[in-house]
Design a protein that fits this description.
The protein has 314 residues and is an all-alpha fold. It has two domains: 57 residues; 233 residues, MetI-like (MetI-like fold, Orthogonal Bundle). Helices cover 75% and strands 0% of the residues. The radius of gyration is 29 Å and the shape is flat. The two termini are 54 Å apart.
Length: 314
């Protein structure tokens, strides 16, 4: 008996040593993998951050210094002339306000309709739910195209109006699926308990579902706002009045077509200096157009990660 006990103890010791050896080997591999991952992430961050820092610093530097010496941290070489020219120019500030109006209104309409559609499709007792899902999925892969869409918008009388930017494309099938998946992950016991207490479907949606849906609502709002803020193609197609142009369309004229408003640069300047000032104005315009997203994202980040993961995996 004692011999068998010693043999068992010896086997257990060997197994524990083997397990410890494997654990040490795995930890080395894990450390190597973590090192490679950190190196790759640092490289990606530098690749993304360096151009952004260059644009940010270039917007504050004197055009001649930036053209001859490059980035300088000498305070004597810094200027706010680019931003003053932008704020004194009516087209860029008007475009900024238009973009805020379009993006904010589009976000409200898109999130509202998406939440309603996603919740309706998540209810088990909805009649024709499969038909509606197939219908939505069909539009996700097939659409009428640019010309029929333009004719539809024109026949609805929305050409050259803000509604042509806000209403078309307000509903995204992928966002509906994301919201539907999130709602299906919520516990049914809450809705059943509310029904027993006599609550209607509308009361359940307003007082129970919406308070629990902050993560997915913030995710949908961030998607909608960023997508509309960066959009310029719809405005280029549907808007004719320059006073209705969003900021991105104004920046397109500056960045791609190199059209800086004549009033922003004095006529007596040399052509080379005009080009340098135009570059500074471009950098300043890019910084201003990025500010809303940079300010918005930190407040949405904690909801963004949770909403995306829960809505996509449940």
């Amino acid at each position: 008996m004692e011999a068998e006990t010693k043999r068992e103890q010896k086997k257990r010791l060997q197994k524990s040593e083997l397990y410890r050896h494997r654990l040490m080997n795995n930890s080395k591999m894990d450390r190597a993998l973590l090192f490679v991952n950190k190196f790759i992430l640092i490289a990606i961050v530098l690749i993304v951050t360096i151009p952004l820092l260059y644009v940010l610093l270039g917007s504050f530097l004197q055009p001649s210094i930036l053209a001859t010496k490059g980035i300088s941290f000498n305070a004597e070489h810094w200027t706010l002339d680019g931003y003053s020219r932008i704020f004194n120019d009516g087209s860029i500030m008007r475009g900024f306000l238009n973009s805020m109006l379009y993006a904010g209104s589009f976000t409200l309409v898109s999130v509202g309709l998406t939440i309603l559609a996603g919740y309706a499709l998540s209810v088990d007792g909805l009649v024709g739910k499969k038909f509606f899902m197939v219908f939505f999925l069909f539009t996700m892969f097939f659409n009428g195209g640019l010309v029929p869409t333009y004719l539809l918008v024109k026949n609805l009388g929305m050409i050259n109006t803000p509604w042509a930017i806000i209403l078309p494309g307000a509903i995204g099938v992928w966002n509906i699926i994301l919201a539907r998946t999130y709602f299906k992950g919520l516990p049914n016991e809450l809705k059943e308990a509310a029904k027993i207490d006599g609550a209607s479907d509308f009361v359940i949606f307003i007082k129970i579902i919406l308070p629990l849906s902050k993560p997915i609502i913030f995710v949908l709002a961030l998607y909608a706002f960023i997508g509309q803020w960066n959009s310029y193609f719809q405005a280029m197609i549907y808007l004719e009045d320059r006073s209705l142009y969003p900021l991105q369309l104004v920046l397109r004229e500056i960045l791609i077509q190199n059209e800086v408003q004549p009033g922003m640069i004095a006529d007596q300047l040399a052509r080379a200096e005009m080009q340098r000032i135009a570059e500074m104005i471009k950098y300043s315009s890019i910084v201003i157009s990025s500010l809303p997203l940079l300010i918005m994202y930190p407040f949405f980040q904690k909801y963004f990660e949770k909403g995306v993961m829960v809505g996509s995996l449940k």
